[in-house]
Write a structure and sequence with these properties.
The protein has one domain. It has helices at residues 13-37, 53-66, 76-92, 96-110, 112-119, 130-141, 146-164, 170-173. Helix 2 packs across helix 3. By secondary structure, the chain is mainly α. The chain has eight helices and no strands. This is Twin-arginine translocation pathway signal protein. It comes from Pseudomonas reinekei.
Amino acid sequence: MNPSLSDTPAFSRRGLLKLSLGASAFLATAGLGASLSGCSTDVAQSGFATLRSGDLLFLRALLPVMLDGAVATEHMPAAVDGTLKSLDYNLDHLSPEMLKLTRQLFDVLGMAVTRGPLTGIWGSWENASADELRHFLDRWENSSLSLLRMGHSSLLQLVMMAWYGRKESWAHCGYPGPPTV
């Protein structure tokens, strides 16, 4: 009689070590390739202090999904632009180490070699549907890997602080604004 799948472990210790080593090598190679090819440049896009062109491609695709329900459809382009400006301002005031970590997150999400396996978005960000982007966010939020859950939390906090720090967001959440002095 053959043992059932539930009776056999999914990974042996050796298998898990091989998988971990392979994943580490993959990410290290992708990071090295990006830095050598110039993909992870630190040059900000014109009009921004810290956000780079690759960051903007990713964020312009993701922000409408993250702001869905908080912004009327006709106001979404202006809300995305304003949120990007606020996010850029906030990032420009981070410590150098926190900015470095945020850029590493954006680099991983921007490179095709890491984007597909980690997010499920195999094409470019601007071609991803809203459902694919929601699935990516859900996947990271509920991942068994703490690193992906931390990435989701970072993205969510960065975007929500940038959006809800803007005056046009206050009416939606019932905030009357700061008192006049």
